[in-house]
Amino acid sequence: MPDGHDLAHHGDAEVGPGLVDLAVNVRAGTPPAWLTERLTASLAALAAYPDATAARDAIAAAHGRDRAEVWPVAGAAEAFVLLARALRPRRAVVVHPQFTEPEAALRAAGHAVERVVLGGDLTLHPGDVPEEADLVVVGNPTNPTSVLHPAATIAALARPGRVLVVDEAFADTVPGEPESLAGRTDLPGLVVLRSLTKTWGLAGLRVGYVLAPAELITTLAAAAPPWSVSTPALEAIRACTTTAAREEADRAASALREDRDHLLAALATVDGVEVRGTAPAASFLLLRTPGRTDVRDALRDRGWAVRRGDTFPGLDAEHVRVAVRDRRTMDAFVEVLREVL
Ligand SMILES: Cc1ncc(COP(=O)(O)O)c(C=O)c1O
Fold it and tell me: Which keywords belong to this entry (predicted)?
């Protein structure tokens, strides 16, 4: 538990019977029936070992990359572990507040981790990251802050001799993915991680993928256990990288943006709470209640599960993360929050 932060804590530990779940960031109502049907059909091939070729081609086509530049993983979480095991960074830097598994994986592999902790409006300035850092991990959009850094800011962190890992697990919650670097092949050492967990409701399947220069993919692949991505997971990649599926994800992202704007407007009428970060862009908001560290428990007592903030480096118990749901749910939540405050 480095510096008292429980890096292994996750939102799913906060949900429980009888609680409205605003703690987990997986899109509600997922996976869609058409996807479940495709996954079910893929079970007919379970006797054979998985063959990732078609899934790699599908990822490559979706992002305009070569097959050699993509690698399926058992969730972005597996990629953090592979990177930590395969790379030998002399100075690893993780930009916080962000998802804690990258730092946990680096530490578990024996690497020292330096933190760059963003404050104030959570804007990232390329100069915040030490020049000597040869491994940098940043989330975009970032969990738990919902901040979407401009592509140019992230790109400015890339340089020869450095591996720049951009966790884009939530990129498809942003309509049009304007700040995604997934298709960029001009940036040295750029590793982009994608996940099918959030938008497609596949947390239990374990599926995502890595986009990186071919030589980095070769390094990662050498560290990967054989067949760690199952046949149904590979089928999910094929199903979710089609043009139709990507359009469906984009429509969901647009609907999410409207629900989030609705929640932001409602929160603006509540005294004692502020939204951290300018222009939140993902499927959740980071809320701060100055002077109040009991809000999570008080909400819980009233039947609402939100994700505690204090396990994230750079945050404290005045913070909670709240998933954006439909307007009726959000209106009810805001009234309970008003009462608590
Ligand atoms: C920012 C971020 N990256 C990665 C992950 C892990 O995703 P996966 O389920 O693909 O391992 C999560 C899950 O909470 C996350 O929030």
Answer: Aminotransferase, Lyase, Pyridoxal phosphate, Transferase
Q: What tokens does 91 get?
A: 């100075």
Quote the ligand 1 centre to 179 CA distance (angstroms). Answer: 18
Using the mean position of ligand 1's atoms as its centre, give its distance from the Cα of residue 25 in Å: 9
Which residue's CA is the nearest one to ligand 1's atom 7?
A: 76
DSSP bridge pairs for 325: none
- 208: its two tokens: 């995502």
The pTM (predicted TM-score) of the whole model is 0.98
pLDDT tens across the length of the chain (341 residues): 678 789 998 999 999 999 999 999 999 999 999 999 999 999 999 999 999 999 999 999 999 999 999 999 999 999 999 999 999 999 999 999 999 999 999 999 999 999 999 999 999 999 999 999 999 999 999 999 999 999 999 999 999 999 999 999 999 999 999 999 999 999 999 999 999 999 999 999 999 999 999 999 999 999 999 999 999 999 999 999 999 999 999 999 999 999 999 999 999 999 999 999 989 999 999 999 999 999 999 999 999 999 999 999 999 999 999 999 999 999 999 999 999 99
- Interval between CA 271 and ligand 1 midpoint (Å): 32
Q: In a 10 Å sphere around its CB, with 0-12 CB exposed, 13-18 middle and 19+ buried, how is residue 140 labelled? A: buried
CB-defined site of ligand 1, < 6 Å:
75-77, 99, 139, 143, 167, 169-170, 195, 197, 203, 208
Q: Could you give the angle at the alpha carbon of 182 between the alpha carbons of 133 and 95, nearest 5°?
A: 30
Residue type at 50 in one-letter notation: P
Strands 319-323, 284-288: pairing is antiparallel
76 C-alpha vs ligand 1 centroid, how far in Å? 6
- Which three-class secondary structure state does DSSP give residue 334? helix
**Beta carbons of 273 and 333 less than 8 angstroms apart:** no
Burial class for 257, CB neighbours closer than 10 Å (0-12, 13-18, 19+): middle
Residue 273 Cα to ligand 1 middle (Å): 27
Q: Which atom of ligand 1 is nearest to the CA of 25?
A: 14
